[in-house]
Design a protein that fits this description.
- There is one protein chain.
- By secondary structure, the chain is mainly β.
- Among the domains are: 1-33 and 382-463, Immunoglobulin-like (Sandwich); 478-565, Immunoglobulin-like (Sandwich).
- 2% of the residues lie in helices and 47% in strands.
- It contains 1 helix and 45 strands.
- It has a 5-stranded antiparallel β-sheet, with helices on one face.
């Protein structure tokens, strides 16, 4: 059901003041449909994050920071406890750390190499949690020493193979240093055994789904290698996904293997959804028919960093935009249905959310903010809905182009097109919409959007000039005989003339949108009327000097004027 409430410009401040009550769990611009459960900030800077569940079902966040890897028990999400911290290679410049898990071990890599004894693939034994965890080994790979064992990212697949990318992953192997090196964690997870290499170009990150590996190659532009890794010792190219204006950073497939979600780590480049179903049909002749079907960006000036797909939702670590949740039940139309902005200062660049892990059985998820640490959050599981309509003039019905629509809780904007039409997709539920256009009074609506459907809402804006003498045409039922002076003194008249019988309401409001005095509220016959306000409220008390508004309503016509009361 569509529920509409209209308010005019004089209600704007009042509406914003009430929005935190109407949406008590959320704060527009900070969070929407995502609830903060706890926040931990014990270190100076942070990097990526992962999760782990022990044999007792207890949940842990593993977060990289300037000194190492912190293991935090979040089983009681409102009261997280750091179990231990595993020191790692450090640098005065960055806090780089990437983490994945397999079985009862965590695998951590870094671009740093000091101290040397911690450089390489750190292997953390998690089997004694919740009592504690220990650094069980630091593994090196061929052609590196502890002084140059750098890796940019790490991936672990469900079959127990580990992949390191970037850094010196494929040093001195005859190809591009910083490609992909593959290890087998079976049968000895403490001593990864090198089994394969892919090194024609630098790889930033990988994602593995069944027998396919997707390699994201930032320095090649928009370039994703797709490899068959049925034989890990001999990865075979299947297809390269090449697209213009890219910086292929990382990606994730949907659980049904139909779509690949990717990011390009450059401001304004979109989160992309690709249809990859042809890769699974056993017909190699059509592997080049991978189509871009959907795109999303939270803010065209900002950078989307890392996507993680759980069910129909994509959780995106979006740097300064915080963490964003997308609904991709319709992959051609990714819809933002929730967000939590952990980094509120304005700006551009590489601050805020580095990583997100949304795969805990509890449904809670964790985010790492580079400046402020670990956030334990809950997505309140809403679907997507939509609204569309036409913005027009209430005076003559003409469509209005360029009207701005602000969806307050969603923190998004839309605008009407040349024919006055607008459309917007966001999360289901109640939304406050502020509609404005120069020359018209701002209007405020509250709409309730159902999941999986679009509602139609046409919006008529009142002109700020209609009602001024000489700018009136029928069938409006009144016109202003004179405007209230600005500034004005008490006892100056507000005069108006009715051309037809009408219900009339004349009220005085303060800047907070609160009614101060009702001067008329009755049915009136055609004729001229003069009403005075003596500068007193309904209780007869003199109000303070300052800005006030009068609002005159006659039938469907609304006139609002600003006044300044001087004493």
């Amino acid at each position: 059901m569509l529920r509409i409430h209209h308010g005019r410009v004089w209600l704007f401040l009042c509406l914003i003041a009430l929005s935190s009550t109407a949406f008590s769990q959320y704060t527009p611009g900070v969070n929407n449909n995502v609830t903060l459960l706890s926040h931990v900030d014990n270190y100076s800077t942070y990097s990526n994050i992962w999760g782990y569940v022990d044999g007792q079902g207890r949940e842990y966040a593993l977060i990289g920071h300037n000194a190492g890897t912190s293991i935090v028990d979040i089983t009681s999400p409102a009261a997280p406890v750091e179990v231990t911290m595993i020191p790692g290679p450090v640098s005065t410049g960055t806090c780089w750390r990437e983490i994945k898990t397999y079985g009862q071990h965590a695998y951590v890599v870094s671009e740093h190499t000091e101290p040397n004894n911690l450089a390489g693939i750190q292997i953390i034994d998690l089997s004694n949690l919740p009592a504690g965890a220990t650094l069980a080994n630091v593994a090196l790979w061929p052609e590196v020493t502890s002084s140059n064992a750098r890796a940019h990212t790490v991936t672990v697949d469900s079959e127990g193979y580990l992949y390191i990318q970037g850094g010196t992953a494929t040093r001195n192997t005859g190809g591009e240093q910083g490609g992909i090196r593959i290890f087998n964690l079976n049968p000895d997870p403490l001593n990864p055994a090198p089994v394969g290499i892919f090194n024609p170009r630098y790889a930033h990150d990988t994602f593995v789904q069944d027998s396919l590996l997707f390699a994201f190659n930032i320095y090649e532009g928009g370039f994703v290698d797709i490899l068959n890794i049925s034989d890990r010792s001999n990865p075979q190219p299947v297809q390269s996904l090449v697209y213009p204006q890219g910086f292929s950073h990382t990606g994730w497939t949907t659980p049904d293997r139909k779509y690949l979600v990717t990011t390009d780590e450059i401001a304004g480049l979109t989160v992309k959804v690709w249809d990859i179903q042809v890769l699974w049909d056993n017909d190699p002749t059509n592997n080049d028919q991978i189509d871009l079907v959907g795109e999303y960006i939270s803010n065209p000036t900002q950078i989307a960093h890392e996507p993680r797909v759980r069910g129909n939702n994509v959780f995106v670590a979006h740097y300064l935009e915080g963490m964003r949740v997308l609904d991709i039940s319709n992959p051609a139309d990714p819809v933002e249905v929730g967000y939590y902005d952990t980094y509120l200062p304005a700006g551009n660049g590489f601050s805020g959310d580095w990583g997100v892990y949304p795969f805990f059985p509890s449904g809670n998820f964790v985010v790492s903010d580079m400046q402020s640490g670990l956030y334990v959050l809950r997505f309140d599981s809403l679907g997507a809905g939509g609204i569309e309509g036409v913005v027009s003039s209430a005076h003559n019905g003409a469509p209005l182009s360029g009207a701005q629509l602000v969806f307050v809780e969603a923190g998004k904007r839309a605008s009407s097109g040349a024919n006055g039409t607008y459309s917007f997709r966001t999360n289901e539920g109640d939304h406050t919409i502020i509609v404005s256009k120069p020359g018209y009074f701002t209007d405020t609506l509250t709409v309730s959007l159902p999941a999986g459907a679009n509602v139609v809402q046409n919006i008529a804006l009142q002109s700020t000039t209609v009602g001024i003498p000489g700018d009136l045409s029928l069938p409006l039922t009144f016109r202003l005989e004179q405007n209230y002076p600005n500034p004005f003194n008490p006892n100056t008249a507000i005069s108006y003339q009715l051309a037809a019988a009408s219900d009339v309401e004349l009220q005085i409001y303060n800047v907070a949108g609160q009614a101060v005095r009702t001067l008329a509220s009755e049915a009136q016959t055609p004729g001229k009327y003069t009403v005075q306000w003596d500068g007193r409220n309904a209780g007869g008390e003199a109000v303070a000097s300052g800005v006030y508004f009068y609002r005159l309503v006659a039938g469907d016509f609304v006139q609002v004027r600003k006044m300044v009361l001087l004493r």
